[in-house]
Write a structure and sequence with these properties.
Layout (H helix, E strand, L loop, with lengths): L7 E7 L11 H15 L4 E6 L2 H13 L7 E5 L7 H4 L2 E4 L9 E4 L13 H14 L3 E2 L18 E2 L4 E5 H4 L12 H13 L3 E5 L16 E3 L4 E6 L8 H13 L1 E2 L2 E2 L1 E6 L5 E2 L2 E2 L8 E3 L2 E6 L4 H12 L4 E6 L10 H4 L1 E4 L8
Parallel strand pairs: 1-2, 2-3, 5-6, 8-9, 11-14, 18-19
Antiparallel strand pairs: 1-20, 4-5, 7-8, 10-11, 12-13, 15-16, 17-18
């Protein structure tokens, strides 16, 4: 699995339609997606999944009004349950040259609504439809311990493109809450990541952040920004529920090794708690997305927005870092990284 900063052929997005994710704010979220696509289309192709011709026509009208070049957009019509394509769209990888010419292949994980929700059947079929439309090889991961394909969401891992991954025990190893693969365990999970994504080192963190309905996705708490550099969320308020879990994750990262060498760990502050009624929302700057020549980072009308954008600009000096207002988007319990899925360019181009 290439690192996110490797060259992309395109970014995949599903146009949002599940109003219960954003009660009373779906119209506002459509304009957040317009802004997201406007920036992405300036640096790479954007492949958008729509449910119908009517939805496509309305969305494209908005995009063109916002200045998006229609020639940079690819439109597909597939049924979907929700629009969190990071988790439902599978994982694009390069096949190993050892078994033939390297080609982009789609790993089609089983998707079961984060082992929590019951509206997932169309989303589970999405990778197969994408692979067929793109005429890409498709692999369905299996494990001897399981009687069905392996469950994995893209937001539950983050990779450096050189065989290392970040993941949380809370998400992938919990044996009672939102259990993805009962009976697979730590060693089985590591074997699956090795066999299907080329991961030889898994750095296990503990817990995710409050408000995250995925039960511990790593893309809200720690991300690779280089082969040995990780940016990690920290909470300075000792009374905040996120303080202790994030401090534990930071300690684990500082103790971690890749091929015997320590990581460079860069702390990134959390925004102040964001609420919608009694619901704590999983607002985090770690849910940024790395596109070709561009980094898009969520912002929350918070004093720490400026700090986060500045740190990301230092970590990605060759890319423009742009903030995207995500206060409405995060009501759906995800932001930019959750909404996007990178399709890498052919292997010969990804190092650019």
């Amino acid at each position: 699995m290439p690192a996110e900063w490797a060259r992309h052929r395109a970014t995949w997005i599903a146009w949002p339609h599940h109003g219960r994710d954003w009660p009373g704010k779906l119209a506002a979220v459509h304009w957040v997606y317009v802004e997201l696509i406007r920036h992405l289309a300036s640096v790479e192709r954007v492949a958008i999944v729509f449910r119908s011709q009517t939805e496509e026509r309305r969305a494209m009208s908005r995009l063109i009004r916002a200045g998006v070049d229609a020639n940079a957009v690819e439109c597909y019509r597939f049924p979907t349950n929700r629009s969190w394509l990071r988790d439902s769209g599978g994982t694009f990888v390069h096949t190993s040259p050892a078994v033939g010419p390297s080609v982009v292949t789609l790993v089609d994980w089983h998707f079961n609504g984060w082992a929590k929700y019951d509206n997932w059947v169309d989303d589970d079929r999405l990778p197969g439809r994408i692979a067929a439309a793109r005429r890409l090889p498709r692999v369905i991961p299996q494990a001897a311990e399981l009687d069905r394909p392996v469950v994995l969401e893209g937001g539950s891992i983050d990779v450096n493109g050189a065989g290392a991954a970040l993941a949380t025990e809370q998400c992938l190893l919990h044996d009672r809450i939102q259990t993805r693969n009962p009976g697979l365990g730590r060693s089985g999970t590591e074997r699956v990541l090795r066999d299907y994504l080329g991961i030889t080192t898994v750095i296990w963190l503990g817990q995710g952040i409050a408000g995250d309905d995925t039960h511990g996705h790593v893309d809200d708490i720690a991300r690779f920004v280089g082969p040995r550099t990780v940016v990690a969320a920290v909470e300075s308020d000792t009374a905040d529920v996120n303080h202790d879990p994030l401090a534990d994750n930071l300690a684990r990262l500082r103790a971690a090794r890749i091929d015997g060498q320590p990581l460079r760990v860069v702390p990134l502050p959390m925004p102040r708690p964001l609420w919608f009624g009694a619901q704590r929302l999983p607002a985090s700057y770690l849910n940024f997305y790395v596109a070709n020549d561009l980094v898009l980072a969520p912002t929350f009308n918070d004093p720490a927005d400026r700090v986060a954008l500045g740190l990301l600009a230092e970590l990605f000096p060759a890319r423009k870092v742009i903030g995207v207002h995500a206060v409405d988007l995060v009501l759906g319990l995800g932001t930019l990284h959750c909404s996007t899925l990178q399709e890498p360019a052919p292997a010969a181009e990804t190092a650019r």
